[in-house]
Design goal:
Aminopeptidase, three-stranded antiparallel β-sheet, 5 helices, 30% strand, globular
Length: 177
């Protein structure tokens, strides 16, 4: 039986394990999963991500959590919260984000998981506001933001995406406790 930080109806949220690496690599090298990101990720980047999330969790009590389907205990991707500090007028901020393996798309998992993370952020961590950012072309993620009750604040040029004109214009959504 897996130990989770918290659960939703169908999902379990936990910190990262080294054994998550193969599935994370599969997800982060999948062209369709990564279509709204500058590049697919390397094995080194995936290992660094896991270590970064472990450290982030220890420092802040949250991260982009590894997520499992409760019925199967299969890793399906990540959904969670991350402190953002890149240079823009709304940072520092706590971002909510998600990325799922394609087999788990279209099942409402991103929405269900994001709602559970909002609840965790507001009720357990006492956060006052949570934001989400995605390229304006990423309609699936923008739809999830709306489904979980977030409101669009503005569109902006993402300072970390200036080399990728098709992704540079992003939407900022926010929700308050």
């Amino acid at each position: 039986m897996q130990s989770y930080e918290f659960t939703s109806e169908r999902l379990g949220f936990r910190t990262w394990k080294t054994s998550d690496f193969p599935k994370l690599l599969e997800m982060n090298t999948h062209q369709e999963v990564m279509r709204y990101f500058p590049t697919i990720q390397t094995a080194i980047q995936c290992r660094e991500f896991i270590e970064r999330m472990k450290t982030h969790y220890l420092q802040h009590g949250y991260c982009y959590f590894a997520v499992e389907e409760l019925a199967t205990e299969e890793f399906i991707g990540f959904i969670g919260l991350s402190l953002q500090t890149y240079d823009i007028d709304f940072n520092p901020s706590t971002d909510i984000g998600w990325r799922l393996l394609p087999n788990y798309w279209g099942k409402g998992y991103a929405t269900e998981g994001a709602k559970a993370c909002l609840n965790y952020g507001f009720k357990e961590l006492n956060l006052k506001e949570i934001v989400s950012v995605a390229p304006t072309v990423n309609l699936p993620s923008l739809a999830v933001m709306k489904k979980i009750g977030m409101v669009k604040v503005k569109d902006f040029k993402h300072p970390l995406l200036t080399a990728y004109p098709e992704l540079e214009t992003c939407s900022l959504f926010a929700i308050q406790a």
